[in-house]
Automatic annotation (TrEMBL):
It comes from Marinobacterium rhizophilum. Pfam families: 3HCDH, 3HCDH_N, ECH_1. SUPFAM superfamilies: 6-phosphogluconate dehydrogenase C-terminal domain-like (SSF48179), ClpP/crotonase (SSF52096), NAD(P)-binding Rossmann-fold domains (SSF51735). It catalyses: a (3S)-3-hydroxyacyl-CoA + NAD(+) = a 3-oxoacyl-CoA + NADH + H(+). In the central section; belongs to the 3-hydroxyacyl-CoA dehydrogenase family. Gene3D superfamilies: 1.10.1040.50, 2-enoyl-CoA Hydratase, Chain A, domain 1, NAD(P)-binding Rossmann-like Domain. The keyword Nuclease does not apply. This is enoyl-CoA hydratase.
Amino acid sequence: MQYAGQAVSVRDAGDGLYEVVFDLAGDSVNKFNQATLAELRDAVAALQGSDGVQGVLFSSAKDVFIVGADITEFTQMFERSEDEIVAGLLEMNQVFNSIEDLPYPTVTAINGVALGGGFELCLATDYRVASTVAKVGLPEVKLGIYPGWGGTVRLSRLLGVDNANEWVCGGAEHKAVAALKAGAVDAVVDPAQLRDAGLDLLRNCIAGKFDYRARRLEKQSAIRLNQVEQMMAFESAKGVIGAQAGPHYPAPMAALKTMQKHAGLTRDAAQAVEARGFAKLAKTEVCRALIGLFMKDQQVKKTGRKHAAGAAPVQQAAVLGAGIMGGGVAYQSASRGVPILMKDINEKALQLGLDEATKLLGGQLKRGRLDAAGVAKTLTMIRPTLSFGDIANVDLVVEAVVENVKVKQAVLAETEQHLKDGAILASNTSTISITELATALKKPENFCGMHFFNPVHKMPLVEVIRGEKTSDAAVARTVAYAQTLGKTPIVVNDCPGFLVNRVLFPYFGGFSLLLRDGGDFRRIDKVMEGFGWPMGPAYLLDVVGIDTAHHADAVMAAGFPDRMTHEGENAIDRLYSLERFGQKNARGFYAYAPDRRGKLKKAPDETVTAALSGVVGAAREFSDEEIIERMMIPLCIETVRCLEDNIVASAADADMGLIYGIGFPPFRGGALYYLDQMGLANFCAMAAKYADLGPLYQPTTRMQQMAERGATYYG
Ligand SMILES: NC(=O)c1ccc[n+]([C@@H]2O[C@H](COP(=O)([O-])OP(=O)(O)OC[C@H]3O[C@@H](n4cnc5c(N)ncnc54)[C@H](O)[C@@H]3O)[C@@H](O)[C@H]2O)c1
């Protein structure tokens, strides 16, 4: 018996054993697109129709096993009615069930990544042997859905309720050894032995050494817990999972409830419950936004690869300034294997930079991500220095000294003299024009912005800023370096604040106006956090630093005087003049003190009311809706301006920049997606209500024209 398709083939492995091999033609990975699924169905039918088959191994000819379902097909699929979605799922379940029901043992050899639908296939076979480098998991909740091809049914029966809750509702990937411990795979072997181990397991089943039928029955039956045990397991998980997911992400809780609902049912009935719940999730706005987000992320990464095409990798980097940002860049570069010189003018600062890196590496050690040798190796890649000694060997320099045009220009000009031909200079400035900084340089073509966010090791975004004279080659190499550091670079054109800060400051502008009109900052924070922001604007200002914000506010006002200047003193000015700089000196809008683990904790500060007297107007009640509208309108309009002014190249770049750079609520898809969802006409009507608040609330002419035409940013 042989079957050969474009993605799936069946080969004779000798002695009655057959191997179903996944190898999607023309792609670097295996995924379950419609064509692959159709071939799988045919391959299984061919097996069913063949005599003499005694066991089947499922394997992959690529580095991955199967990365999951093809998410690009989801949008169209989820546009169907709930009933049609359910029917589609049950049809796929029949294929997976027919694998589970084959009259002989089945094993999956998991050689690499097996996620989502890819792992659900593994669960349909009797046993799973994983290579030491394999990773498995069910990440569907990250897309606002849950596993729909029997994953919630089989996993809860195989792993037990507690583990299954954690795996399905958390959506994490698990390394092979952890999967073995949880019972999600049955053996872990070296990659070279994987296939033989799988075939051996089949032979042992055939010889009766393993009772594969009992294994199978376990997956097909109800969960073996009595009513009370079931209730205890599921009800106690609800609090934890609800708190982890928060109010805006319904999928984890829906997954939990589905598993509870089908716990007492046998396979096919349980799958019907799973399918119904899946279809409901697939129709939600959150699911649509999260799938859209996945696509935008793919698009942004693809654009990044295009920008970086042909760039020689950075072999040796340098960073100027060993402060918060410089220290962070040094750590990130070293931990990604690119040696880096860390230059400062201050010995103490160098030590602080190294201490920070050591602390972060200590965390990796504690979490088991690095061993002691790895920590030592990474640390040797950071070379602190007070001189320009070895800078002639460097391919790319990140300048991260104080935010001051004159200082930066002097440092950049001096550095340039020591660099080899073709080396790139990149400034981590958060606000200063790259074109302006470039005027101090002899070779402005080799200069661009490389704007990291704080904390560098955590924040995924890097804005790469193209000045007027920046060459494509400089952009390419900087983008490539950001990718090597594991970041998502977005290339933007030069303007004050670039994309992220240019959009953030009008949002702070909206906040200042709310305070002026008598809003309470604690309530505004609460409402905006409820809207989905990781922190409200007052808390965010404290984290950014009131001094930093005050400085940037002035730069933005000078850059966009028509709308970003403000009359008189605002809350930021006041806190700045009182030296309440936020977290960095333990007092801003809130007070801060380290908790037992040394993490800064926010607390109410009674002195702030007096501190803000005169800049906060007579107290007035605002509805949640009004707070949200007054905060979001300036942010949305400024994002549109960035697109209209060609600061960003696409709506996806803008939205992902905001999500990765300032934590715009991901389930809302970004500012432009949010506008599309609301409809531009509705947005313009809403903005008109606030016209008296000034130009931050004035949609652009093009927005109004688009509103009239019913146009959208994503087409
Ligand atoms: N902190 C943030 O949240 C953040 C975020 C994004 C970008 N940035 C930008 O990064 C840059 C650095 O900010 P930071 O917060 O790390 O500042 P910082 O004050 O923590 O560090 C600046 C460091 O530069 C050193 N320095 C000053 N002059 C120097 C010189 N001539 N040569 C070498 N080193 C010199 C100082 O000794 C200090 O260690 C600024 O441009 C800032 O706008 C900061």
